[in-house]
Protein backbone atom coordinates (compact mmCIF):
# COMPACT_ATOMS: atom_id res chain seq x y z
CA UNK A 1 0.00 0.00 0.00
CA UNK A 2 1.23 3.50 -0.88
CA UNK A 3 0.23 6.36 1.41
CA UNK A 4 1.00 10.03 0.87
CA UNK A 5 1.24 12.21 3.97
CA UNK A 6 -0.06 15.74 3.42
CA UNK A 7 1.11 17.50 6.55
CA UNK A 8 -0.05 20.89 7.69
CA UNK A 9 -1.28 23.03 10.52
CA UNK A 10 -4.68 23.20 8.78
CA UNK A 11 -5.38 26.45 10.61
CA UNK A 12 -8.08 26.21 9.26
CA UNK A 13 -8.38 23.40 6.73
CA UNK A 14 -9.86 24.81 3.51
CA UNK A 15 -11.01 23.68 0.08
CA UNK A 16 -7.53 24.22 -1.36
CA UNK A 17 -6.13 21.59 1.03
CA UNK A 18 -8.96 19.24 0.10
CA UNK A 19 -8.40 19.78 -3.63
CA UNK A 20 -4.71 18.83 -3.29
CA UNK A 21 -5.53 15.76 -1.17
CA UNK A 22 -8.22 14.66 -3.64
CA UNK A 23 -5.96 15.24 -6.65
CA UNK A 24 -3.13 13.24 -5.07
CA UNK A 25 -5.48 10.39 -4.16
CA UNK A 26 -6.67 10.21 -7.77
CA UNK A 27 -3.59 11.01 -9.86
CA UNK A 28 -0.36 10.44 -7.88
CA UNK A 29 -0.41 6.64 -7.76
CA UNK A 30 -1.32 6.58 -4.07
CA UNK A 31 -3.77 4.25 -2.37
CA UNK A 32 -4.56 6.80 0.34
CA UNK A 33 -3.72 10.33 1.40
CA UNK A 34 -3.46 10.99 5.12
CA UNK A 35 -3.94 14.64 6.03
CA UNK A 36 -1.52 14.79 8.93
CA UNK A 37 -2.16 17.51 11.49
CA UNK A 38 1.06 19.15 12.65
CA UNK A 39 1.07 20.40 16.25
CA UNK A 40 3.63 23.10 15.43
CA UNK A 41 5.90 23.42 12.44
CA UNK A 42 9.37 24.14 13.89
CA UNK A 43 10.03 26.47 10.95
CA UNK A 44 6.85 28.58 11.39
CA UNK A 45 5.49 31.10 13.91
CA UNK A 46 2.88 29.70 16.31
CA UNK A 47 1.27 33.03 17.30
CA UNK A 48 -1.96 32.45 15.32
CA UNK A 49 -2.16 28.67 15.81
CA UNK A 50 -5.41 27.62 17.50
CA UNK A 51 -5.72 24.63 19.82
CA UNK A 52 -4.91 21.18 18.39
CA UNK A 53 -8.33 19.76 19.29
CA UNK A 54 -10.16 22.39 17.20
CA UNK A 55 -7.89 21.91 14.20
CA UNK A 56 -8.24 18.12 14.44
CA UNK A 57 -12.03 18.35 14.69
CA UNK A 58 -12.17 20.61 11.62
CA UNK A 59 -9.93 18.16 9.73
CA UNK A 60 -12.19 15.26 10.72
CA UNK A 61 -15.24 17.21 9.58
CA UNK A 62 -13.51 18.02 6.28
CA UNK A 63 -12.59 14.43 5.39
CA UNK A 64 -15.91 13.07 6.65
CA UNK A 65 -16.75 9.79 8.33
CA UNK A 66 -16.67 7.60 5.21
CA UNK A 67 -14.32 4.71 6.04
CA UNK A 68 -14.08 3.87 2.33
CA UNK A 69 -12.63 7.28 1.52
CA UNK A 70 -9.04 7.37 0.30
CA UNK A 71 -8.49 10.61 2.25
CA UNK A 72 -8.07 10.30 6.03
CA UNK A 73 -7.41 12.62 8.97
CA UNK A 74 -4.20 11.68 10.78
CA UNK A 75 -3.38 12.86 14.30
CA UNK A 76 -0.21 10.80 14.86
CA UNK A 77 2.04 13.85 15.36
CA UNK A 78 -0.08 15.06 18.27
CA UNK A 79 1.15 12.11 20.35
CA UNK A 80 4.82 12.32 19.35
CA UNK A 81 7.54 14.36 21.11
CA UNK A 82 7.73 18.03 20.17
CA UNK A 83 8.96 19.77 18.21
CA UNK A 84 7.62 17.53 15.49
CA UNK A 85 10.07 16.56 12.77
CA UNK A 86 8.93 14.81 9.61
CA UNK A 87 11.71 12.22 9.66
CA UNK A 88 10.74 11.13 13.20
CA UNK A 89 7.10 10.83 12.18
CA UNK A 90 7.99 8.79 9.11
CA UNK A 91 10.14 6.41 11.14
CA UNK A 92 7.40 6.02 13.75
CA UNK A 93 4.79 5.27 11.08
CA UNK A 94 7.15 2.87 9.31
CA UNK A 95 7.58 0.88 12.54
CA UNK A 96 3.80 0.75 13.07
CA UNK A 97 2.99 -0.04 9.42
CA UNK A 98 6.04 -1.88 7.97
CA UNK A 99 4.18 -3.03 4.84
CA UNK A 100 3.19 0.53 3.86
CA UNK A 101 5.27 2.74 1.58
CA UNK A 102 5.00 6.31 2.91
CA UNK A 103 5.90 9.50 1.06
CA UNK A 104 5.58 13.17 1.90
CA UNK A 105 3.35 15.51 -0.10
CA UNK A 106 4.46 19.14 0.03
CA UNK A 107 3.92 22.37 -1.85
CA UNK A 108 6.60 24.06 -3.92
CA UNK A 109 6.76 26.81 -1.28
CA UNK A 110 7.93 24.29 1.33
CA UNK A 111 10.06 22.39 -1.19
CA UNK A 112 12.28 25.48 -1.61
CA UNK A 113 13.28 25.15 2.07
CA UNK A 114 13.33 21.36 2.12
CA UNK A 115 17.10 21.27 2.62
CA UNK A 116 16.56 22.81 6.09
CA UNK A 117 14.28 19.97 7.21
CA UNK A 118 15.85 17.60 9.69
CA UNK A 119 17.51 14.74 7.78
CA UNK A 120 16.02 15.86 4.48
CA UNK A 121 18.29 13.49 2.54
CA UNK A 122 16.97 10.52 4.56
CA UNK A 123 13.40 11.59 3.84
CA UNK A 124 14.19 11.63 0.12
CA UNK A 125 16.15 8.39 -0.01
CA UNK A 126 14.05 6.31 2.40
CA UNK A 127 10.52 7.62 1.73
CA UNK A 128 10.24 10.06 -1.15
CA UNK A 129 8.61 13.43 -1.72
CA UNK A 130 5.76 14.47 -3.98
CA UNK A 131 5.76 18.20 -4.78
CA UNK A 132 2.77 20.17 -6.07
CA UNK A 133 2.78 23.77 -7.36
CA UNK A 134 1.98 26.77 -5.18
CA UNK A 135 1.38 30.30 -6.50
CA UNK A 136 4.59 32.28 -6.82
CA UNK A 137 6.90 29.31 -6.16
CA UNK A 138 8.03 27.73 -9.44
CA UNK A 139 9.22 24.15 -9.24
CA UNK A 140 12.61 23.28 -10.62
CA UNK A 141 13.07 19.77 -11.96
CA UNK A 142 14.18 17.66 -8.99
CA UNK A 143 17.50 15.85 -9.29
CA UNK A 144 16.58 13.06 -6.88
CA UNK A 145 14.79 9.95 -8.22
CA UNK A 146 12.52 9.80 -5.14
CA UNK A 147 11.13 13.29 -5.76
CA UNK A 148 8.17 13.61 -8.11
CA UNK A 149 6.30 16.65 -9.32
CA UNK A 150 2.53 16.28 -9.61
CA UNK A 151 0.88 19.25 -11.31
CA UNK A 152 -2.16 19.55 -9.09
CA UNK A 153 -4.39 22.57 -9.77
CA UNK A 154 -3.08 25.78 -8.22
CA UNK A 155 -5.35 27.61 -5.81
CA UNK A 156 -4.83 31.06 -4.34
CA UNK A 157 -6.63 30.20 -1.08
CA UNK A 158 -4.50 30.32 2.06
CA UNK A 159 -5.24 29.72 5.72
CA UNK A 160 -3.65 33.11 6.50
CA UNK A 161 -6.14 34.86 4.20
CA UNK A 162 -9.03 32.91 5.73
CA UNK A 163 -8.01 33.75 9.31
CA UNK A 164 -7.85 37.44 8.40
CA UNK A 165 -11.19 37.35 6.59
CA UNK A 166 -12.89 35.44 9.41
CA UNK A 167 -11.52 37.82 12.04
CA UNK A 168 -13.08 40.66 10.05
CA UNK A 169 -16.47 38.93 10.07
CA UNK A 170 -16.49 37.82 6.42
CA UNK A 171 -18.72 34.93 5.36
CA UNK A 172 -16.26 32.32 4.05
CA UNK A 173 -18.76 29.48 3.59
CA UNK A 174 -17.56 28.40 0.14
CA UNK A 175 -13.86 28.57 0.98
CA UNK A 176 -14.19 25.90 3.67
CA UNK A 177 -15.31 22.26 3.49
CA UNK A 178 -18.98 21.65 4.42
CA UNK A 179 -19.41 21.80 8.17
CA UNK A 180 -16.09 23.51 8.90
CA UNK A 181 -17.44 27.06 8.62
CA UNK A 182 -20.30 26.17 10.97
CA UNK A 183 -17.82 24.65 13.44
CA UNK A 184 -15.70 27.83 13.34
CA UNK A 185 -18.72 30.06 13.97
CA UNK A 186 -20.16 27.83 16.72
CA UNK A 187 -16.83 27.80 18.58
CA UNK A 188 -16.01 31.50 17.95
CA UNK A 189 -12.69 30.67 16.31
CA UNK A 190 -10.57 33.27 14.51
CA UNK A 191 -12.67 36.18 15.79
UniProtKB/TrEMBL annotation:
Keywords: ATP-binding, NAD, Nucleotide-binding, Nucleotidyltransferase, Pyridine nucleotide biosynthesis, Transferase. Pathway: Cofactor biosynthesis; NAD(+) biosynthesis; deamido-NAD(+) from nicotinate D-ribonucleotide: step 1/1. Transmembrane segments: none annotated. GO terms for biological process: NAD+ biosynthetic process. InterPro entries: Cyt_trans-like, NadD/NMNAT, Rossmann-like_a/b/a_fold. Residues 5-164 form the Cytidyltransferase-like domain. One of its GO terms (molecular function) is nicotinate-nucleotide adenylyltransferase activity. This is Probable nicotinate-nucleotide adenylyltransferase. It comes from Paramuribaculum intestinale.
Amino acid sequence: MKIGLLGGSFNPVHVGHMMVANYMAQFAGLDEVWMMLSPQNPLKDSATLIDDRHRLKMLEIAVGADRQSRIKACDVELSLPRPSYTIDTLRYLNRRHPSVSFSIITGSDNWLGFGRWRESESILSDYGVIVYPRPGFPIETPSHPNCRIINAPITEISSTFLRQALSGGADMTYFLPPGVYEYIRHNHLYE
